Amino acid sequence: MTDDWTDVLGALAESGARFLVVGAHALAVHGVPRGTQDLDVWVDPSMDNAERVWRGLAAFGAPLQELGIHPEDLRRSGTVIQLGLPPNRIDLLTGISGVPDFDTAWAERVEHAFGGRRVPFIGRATLIDNKRASGRRKDLVDLEALGDLPP
Q: What is the pTM of this model?
């Protein structure tokens, strides 16, 4: 865990943004730790939330103007915004494979400590849906470690 990861999650939370930590950090919360070089954060792409995310990123100090990032970018399906470089990169996602909408995942979220604060993570069943749909080799390995191989 890096200070940037803790700080960006804090800034998003303080702005009132709805977001879920996904990817390897969520995998660890569900009992399967593995290495990663980034923090994957899925943000609710609704209009109001996009504004809150943008404000949170600005408060964090993200170079939004320099990168040409605007609130409407956070509303487009399939948007990926990468801040920084591995091993400390932050990936902001407006959608993930295998999960039709943010609201469903939000209802199934789990909260867990991350950097001294409670942070929302994708729920186990939704994480499994995501891993199944992604189908990458590392996702299949993750599913096996979770005890949930695809049919």
A: 0.94
